[in-house]
Amino acid sequence: MPEQSPRRRAQNFEEVPKGYSPETAQTEASRCLDCKKPLCVAGCPVNIDIPGFVRLIAQGKFVEAAMKLKEQTALPAVCGRVCPQETQCEERCVLTKKFESVAIGRLERFAADYARVLGNEPPPELAAPTGKKVAVIGAGPAGITVAGDLARWGHHVVIFEALHLSGGVLMYGIPEFRLPKDIVQYEINNLTKLGVEIFTDYVIGKTETVDQLIQDLGFDAVFIGAGAGLPMFLGIPGENAIGVYSANEYLTRINLMKAYDFPNYATSPPRAHHVITVGGGNVAMDAARSALRLGSRSTIVYRRSRVELPARVEEVHHAEQEGVVLNLLTNPVGIVTDAGGRVTGMECLKMELGEPDESGRRRPVAVKGSNFVIAADAIVIAIGNKPNPLISQTSPGLKVSKWGTLVVNEETMATSTPGVFAGGDIVSGAATVISAMGQAKIAARSIHEYLQSPAEEPASISRRGAETQRE
Question: Domain segments of the chain: what residues?
Answer without folding.
Answer: 6-118, 133-229+386-452, 233-383
